[in-house]
Amino acid sequence: MILLAVLFLCFISSYSASVKGHTTGLSLNNDRLYKLMYSTEVLLDRGKGKLQDSVGYRISSNVDVALLWRNPDGDDDQLIQITMKDVNVENVNQQRGEKSIFKGKSPPKIMGKENLEALQRPMLLHLIHGKVKEFYSYQNEPVAIENIKRGLASLFQTQLSSGTTNEVDISGNCKVTYQAHQGKVIKIKALDSCKIVRSGFTTPNQVLGVSSKATSVTTYKIEDSFVIAVLAEETHAFGLNFLQTITGKIVSKQKLELKTTEAGPRLMSGKQAATIIKAVDSKYTAIPIVGQVFQSQCKGCPSILEHWQSIRKYLQPDSLSKAEAVRNFLAFVQHLRNAKKEEILQILKMESKEVLPQLVDAVTSAQTSDSLEAILDFLDFKSDSSVILQERFLYACGFASHPDEELLRALISKFKGSIGSSDIRETVMIIIGTLVRKLCQNEGCKLKAVVEAKKLILGGLEKAEKKEDTRMYLLALKNALLPEGIPSLLKYAEAGEGPISHLATTTLQRYDLPFITDEVKKTLNRIYHQNRKVHEKTVRTTAAAIILNNNPSYMEVKNILLSIGELPQEMNKYMLAIVQDILHFEMPASKIVRRVLKEMVAHNYDRFSRSGSSSAYTGYIERSPHSASTYSLDILYSGSGILRRSNLNVFQYIGKAGLHGSQVVIEAQGLEALIAATPDEGEENLDSYAGMSAILFDVQLRPVTFFNGYSDLMSKILSASGDPISVVKGLILLIDHSQELQLQSGLKANIEVQGGLAIDISGAMEFSLWYRESKTRVKNRVTVVITTDITVDSSFVKAGLETSTETEAGLEFISTVQFSQYPFLVCMQMDKDEAPFRQFEKKYERLSTGRGYVSQKRKESVLAGCEFPLHQENSEMCKVVFAPQPDSTSSGWF
Question: pLDDT confidence of 325, banded at 50, 70, 90?
Fold first, then answer.
């Protein structure tokens, strides 16, 4: 009895989790014709979900479904015929009225006679246990039309019991979950699990990346083992991570409804489905149920040469500060991705030297095999006559959004070959380091080219005999951030000469917390406390900063605090400012610092009242619940009042992900002799030098030199014009997301998000013996444009949503020091210019014949300029103020 009870409960449980009458898939009755109404529609908007703000279209038809054959050995083996009839195409938004692109046009005019005929040809579906075994259609039908038929056919694949399985349909091989209820089945498809070949790429950095979410839910109403209604809804939503106003959404719906049944074709007899199919029509052929790729032809589109000739005027050097330049740069990069090598090379060879650097930026940013081959053929690295073009090419490679092994191999080959300029040779190695890190971040660490590049960097550093080579490989390692390079960095940090030791410690500073082990911190503590040798202030302060920023122990913090008061005067003030900055900005080390400060020996007036002009400060540029932008400025002076180092950083954070937006470091040394001052301890024999180093979007650039040596210094002082030296200038493709989607309705969708900027970072250092004054200036000028383009294409009608967000901004830091007396006078200021902020939106629906509807909106505001606080006494955050301008809207025909 117990056994019978258990079996009974199992039966009831199984029954309640399935649809009454069948336990596998749909089953059609013999000799019946099922007449249904089918429609599929798509809507595009910016995620607000308002029909009036959307664009899209609907394809509808009547559908006849009949059972042609059932396997005599099993009811769940069926061959069904599906035929679309009376196809129509219309607007989803009925408010379009007279502006509708479909008004007055018949389906043959909209779709084309051949497309319509192909769509209305019957298709066959072989189902076994409710799952698609084969899909049959006719050869040489347009791929886009076959996809629409696949979308309808896929709706007939279902199971009538609960469970999770993998299915192959138009979306690919996907994981699906069925929830069966009395008379109803809900099918949830995990779109992120679908395996289907589609082109696409994205920016790997989460801050600059795009987040997306896709859902698919299909609800079946079942009666007598067949559908009386099917409703499917698929959504794809995306948003730019660091700017949440940039969003988009695609909603695709399918609806299938049974209208009536009537007498249908007689069931055909036979043992094999193949025999039946041949008897129905020998022209039927089995094709994949998975959606196939197609490209719509662009009618009347300009050639790549015509496109370039129309935009080159916007890329003149004097026009690069305008948003128009960046907008055209992004559009041209998109066009270049479809261009052939010969076409690109033709444009490169015919262009003038004024516009060539911008053209090199665009060609390199295209990141295709043809564009890479063209630019490598064009540039002659054996000559030093085109250094500017070579440098622009290399930096564009460093900022590449999705570099591949081919690009890395090309740079390795160039490095091993003959290079005319020593600066370019150094830059090639630095960018190799960048590509190694980016490929490793994208799970490409085991690629042959990456392995070779690692050996090149680490082996070169180990064998380097010249200071220049050591610096080059350290800069490459600063970009590559190889864990296996840490032992070499520790060796150079502790035993190397001043500049090399400083470079090694700043390289260690870029590694993440897990790599700053106790062993690493032991070495850094020895450097800071000078246990083995005397080090320069810049090296010691960097070592201390690494310790304090990477989970310091109680004793490490205490020893650093106890050292304040025993250091050179300006270093005392600098370390004190670092500790105060940790506390005021609530950095991770602030808790342990507060614990140590409870001890009187570490926290007393004598230690915390040290005078000096060196400083350190961190503040917010912008702060929101999901993101933050921070800036930090620390300045270290020598005891004589001459700048030793200024370090300006900007970081962007999204959650726990971060991006080192920029760093500009100006360093000077060995200038005390000019004013008959005494050098600080450990810096008595330093050569006169001043230079600037920059990191831009996580890429360490090649440092530039203002002067090197006493004679060079004197000539610069006597002939100084105060003109800034450019560290980096050019057009950069910063955000690059491309995604091709196969909608389950059969339509094709594309999402493109590009962000570009024109950037000019320059710096200058002026020195006046007459006025006993030094001045440093760092200027950042940036124009940013972010564009999005969402399209849904059926080959005969296309809907799209384009947006553009743009701004032009400037940030300038000036530090002036008068050292005619002590304590010397210091004036620091960091200002952000007033910046326009513009947003554009364009929505359209367009027939392949050219007729279309377009709606455009424009919104403008002004971000007020402001001055940022640079010390604790003035810590109010610089607020961004929007001054809105009147909006404009237009719509009409085109």
Answer: very high
Please say if the pLDDT value at position 23 is more than 70: no
Tokens of 847: 């027939």
Q: Output the CA angle 155-160-163, nearest 5 degrees.
A: 100
The span from the CA of 299 to the CA of 45, in Å, is 26
pTM of the complete model: 0.88
Q: Provide the 3-class DSSP secondary structure of residue 330.
A: helix
The C-alpha angle with vertex 210 and arms to 186 and 739, in degrees rounded to 5, equals 70
Spatial CA neighbour of 708 closest among 652, 762, 765: 765
DSSP states along 544-598: HHHHHTS---HHHHHHHHHHTTSS-HHHHHHHHHHHHHHHHTT-TTHHHHHHHHT
DSSP secondary structure, 326-363, as one string:
HHHHHHHHHHHTT--HHHHHHHHHHS-TTTHHHHHHHH
233 phi, psi to nearest 5 deg: -135, 130
Containing 685, the helix (H) or strand (E) segment is none
- How far apart (Å, rounded) are the C-alpha atoms in residues 841 and 477? 43
No. of H helices and E strands in the chain?
24, 30
CA atoms of 695 and 701, how far apart (whole Å) = 6
Cβ atoms within 10 Å of 288's Cβ, excluding its own: 13
Write out pLDDT tens, residues 194-223: 999 988 888 888 899 999 999 999 999 999
Please say whether the beta carbons of 866 and 819 come within 8 A. no
Which residues partner with 7 through β-bridges?
none
What is the C-alpha to C-alpha distance for residues 812 and 763, in angstroms, rounded to an integer?
10
Distance (Å, rounded) from C-alpha 377 to C-alpha 341?
10
Q: Alpha-carbon Rg of the chain, whole angstroms?
A: 34
